[in-house]
Design a protein that fits this description.
CATH superfamily: Class I glutamine amidotransferase (GATase) domain
CATH architecture: 3-Layer(aba) Sandwich
Strand content: 15-25%
Number of domains: 1
Radius of gyration: 16 Å
Distance between the termini: 17 Å
Mean pLDDT: 93
Largest sheet: 7 strands, mixed
CATH class: Alpha Beta
CATH topology: Rossmann fold
Structural class: alpha/beta
Low-confidence stretches: 53-59
Number of strands: 11
Shape: globular
Strand order of the largest sheet: 5-2-1-6-7-11-10
Order of helices and strands: EHEEEHEEHHHEHEHEEEH
Number of helices: 8
Helix content: 25-40%
C-alpha cells in the first residue's frame, strides 16, 4: 500500500491550502486504497478575508486587521485533526510528497506573495522537498504550489506547470531554471527524469469538477511513474 505525505499551509484559498484542491487530492489517494498523512508547519500567518468580493487587484490579498491564526491549527481543519508537525516528516516513511495549492503556499510556505522572484521557502518545506528529491521519490504539486518546488529544485531544471507558460509565476519559475509547460485545467505535466508531477488547478480552472479531475489525473500520473520505475 502506498503512503503519501501531504503538506498543508492553512485552510482557505486566499491564505491557506485551497479546500477543493486539498479534498480532490486526498480523495484521489483514498480511492486507490492508499494512505495519506497530512503535515503542516507551525507558526502564525495574517488572515485574508474570504467573504468580501474582490473588485480589483489592489484589494486582492488584503489582510484582516491584526488577526492572526496558526498554520498548523488551521490545517488540522482539513485533516480532521489527523495531522503532524512538519518537522516530523521523514521521506523514508512515504512513497511521495504532495502539495495542494492555495495562497498559503505563496504566503505561509514561502514568501512568493510578498517577494516575487526574491522569494524564500521556509526551512521545513525546503528540507522536505530536497529530502524527497534526493531519495528519488516523486513530488506532486497543484495550482500555485509548484512555484515552491520551482524555487527549491529550479537549479536541477525541473519541468512543471503553473497553468500558462507566460503568467507572472511561470516567468519567475523560468528564472529559477525550470522548464515550464502550459496545461489546461485537468492536464498534468510530468517530469519523469526529476520525478515531479504538477497540475494547474485554479491557476486556470473555473469549475470544481476540473479540480477533482486534475487531482485524479495527477495521482494517476504518479502511479504510472511508479509503475515504470519498478519495471
Amino acid at each position: 500500500m502506498k503512503k503519501i505525505a501531504v503538506i498543508l499551509s492553512g485552510c482557505g484559498n486566499r491564505d491557506g491550502s485551497e479546500l477543493q484542491e486539498s479534498l480532490g487530492l486526498l480523495l484521489a489517494i483514498d480511492r486507490r486504497g492508499w494512505q495519506y498523512q497530512c503535515f503542516a508547519p507551525e507558526g502564525y500567518f495574517e488572515v485574508v478575508p474570504h467573504v468580501d468580493v474582490v473588485d480589483d487587484e489592489e484589494d486582492e490579498g488584503k489582510v484582516v486587521d491584526i488577526e492572526q491564526r496558526d498554520i498548523f491549527v488551521e490545517s488540522a481543519r482539513i485533516a480532521r485533526g489527523n495531522i503532524k508537525p512538519l518537522d516530523e516528516f521523514r521521506i523514508a516513511d512515504f512513497d511521495a510528497l504532495a502539495f495542494p495549492g492555495g495562497m498559503g503556499a505563496a504566503r505561509n510556505l514561502s514568501t512568493y506573495a510578498f517577494d516575487g522572484p526574491q522569494m524564500t521557502v521556509i526551512d521545513g518545506v525546503t528540507d522536505a522537498i530536497l529530502e524527497t528529491y534526493r531519495a528519488r521519490k516523486p513530488i506532486m504539486a497543484m495550482c500555485i504550489a509548484p512555484i515552491v518546488v520551482a524555487k527549491v529544485l529550479g537549479k536541477y531544471g525541473v519541468g512543471l506547470t503553473l497553468g500558462t507558460d507566460d503568467n507572472t509565476a511561470a516567468k519567475i519559475a523560468k528564472g529559477f531554471g525550470c522548464r515550464i509547460e502550459a496545461c489546461k485545467p485537468t492536464e498534468v505535466c510530468v517530469d519523469d527524469i526529476n520525478r515531479v508531477v504538477t497540475t494547474p488547478a485554479y491557476m486556470v480552472a473555473t469549475h470544481i469538477s476540473e479540480i477533482f479531475d486534475g487531482a485524479e489525473n495527477m495521482v494517476a500520473a504518479f502511479e504510472k511513474l511508479q509503475s515504470v520505475e519498478s519495471i
